[in-house]
Fold each of these.
Amino acid sequence: MTSKRDHGGGVDAAVARWGGRRADWLDLSTGINPMAYPVGNISPDAWAMLPDQGAMDRLIAAARVFWKVPAKAEILAGPGASAFIARMPWLVPPQDVYIPAPTYNEHSAAFRGAWGDRVSGTNQAAAVHVYVHPNNPDGHWWPDMIVDRRDLTVIDESFCDVAPERSHMAQADRQGVVILKSFGKFWGLAGGRLGFAIGLPETLGPLSDHLGPWAVSGPVLEIGARALADEAWADATRRRLTEDAARLDDLAKRAGWHVVGGTSLFRLYQVSDADDWQDRLARRRILSRIFPYSQNWIRLGLPGSKEDWQRLAEALA
């Protein structure tokens, strides 16, 4: 049975179920940019020495400019957005939580694990709201009105860098608002484990107290600062992702799939039988994403190389 806390990735599990070697598989089950930021050379000191405050300051300064973070808002960097998601219940006392579903399941898991069964997809009167913007898996964009006067509003913008003009970052200096950012998705460097929580210092206080020293490795501090300062790469990447998402939709439509939504990093489709299609692709060593709450939704990330595109086209033909 599929776990309710299912995720993309998991090629090892796919090998165990469908066979082949790990190297045989094309993993399209995630929303990670398949053409990652070129990390370049890393200084020897970044590997050999404990990360210093100067390296963290350079990363935070680059993040502030790239995301246009309000001056009053604080930026915390940590080992991936998921690390911050797990700690969101630390920010306020236990109370009811509104998380519109379906969405990324780790938010609900974090609050249920900390506070018990106080999470609802209908109780909009709750004092804690959580939104994934754009939503995963359907790509829904939430309007500005989601930011209201309440104890805590968490806005997970892990996929928002494909469309920065739609970010709610301008609201990060409002009381109780936390914006989460992921480095791994848009820059394609998920293995680096870098994420950010952004909000007023008084809102983020419990997070800052518990991160501890050296929450981000020296090499990742260096890579992150370099990548966030590279606006030309970001602009070119957005254009390419948009083109590739349209290309993926075209392949899916030819297979008889119907576009539900998604972002330019992943696409969501309606099919006659999601389990069957996942199995058909897996037998061609292509890993897709299906969901425990839908028999008809299947999600694909973007292929990267010419060969990968050809493999997918042949599998869908």
Amino acid sequence: MTDETNMLRQLRSNGNPVIGSGKAVICWEGEDPPQLLADHIGWNRDQAAQMSRLSERLWVYQAELPADSYIEYAFCKGDERIIDPHNPQITPNGLGQYNNYFSMPEYRSSTWHHKLKGIPQGEISKMRLPSHGLVTDSSRTVHLYHPPVDYPVPLVIVYDGNEYLQRTRLPVIMDNLIAAGKIQPLALAMINNSKRYRFMEYSCADATLFYLLEVVLPYAHHNLNLIDIDTHPGAYGILGASLGGLMALYTLLRLPKIFGRGLCQAGAYSVEGFDFPVWDLLEGIRGTDARIWMDCGRFDWLIEANRRMASVLSDLAIPFHFHEINAGHNYPTWRDCLPHGLEFLYPSNAS
């Protein structure tokens, strides 16, 4: 049996990619192959992989990957993005398009985001809050998660709240972790981002912090049963990914008497060689009760900035944990890391 015949048989039987012996072979049937973009090779067109001809109508790209990798990829021809006809697994890329994805044999997705029957469930409420000119748009949607308990709890502010609500199913994760006794009950205020001005609002913007103080926190205090932050300084948490992860750390550094727990996923602490102000503020948390969780994919373009941040936090003797996974820059990766981060920051035996 020829290599081509064997590859086609596996492709048509099991779909893309053909996986074996620590390798993933992504295939394309047709006269003209597309370019390939993927987590492990980068998402810029100038980084696109060229597929190799195996036969007249079969083209392949082969990669050696860690056995527990999760990979997203896309075929492109010019400006056209093409869904892989041999892979039904697709996921939103956050930009109005879809990526195909696959995983290597030892990858295990978290199940904490799967809704369970028979456990207490929190409630979700929604409000459009006025911006008062502090952030862009005339108003901003905020979703509140009310945990299924009747006593005061800490609050966690969530940047890109709409994404965490829909793409990670964060309230479901909260219900499951609380019911399993993995974390103490927490309330959430999930703030929708500004699609157009997200970079401006999340690149260490004090206007965003002022919006939290003047609009979001008063609304949360009025509608949630929260512990007194004056009695428990630093008890509130802050969560975000990418630019939201940068803004989460910045919020903790600027407002430490309120936010002492940071869950920063693939934080964009440095972009194209530019260091954001968080680096200059780090010394200020030495000796505080701050606690920080960081996670980032090893194929993420922000991995070196995150490793550098972890090194600085270690030098400052700040309680933190940095978790690396064999994945890229995407919400399925962050969703799988969320339960670990929440348990690290708010274990069930915390006072």
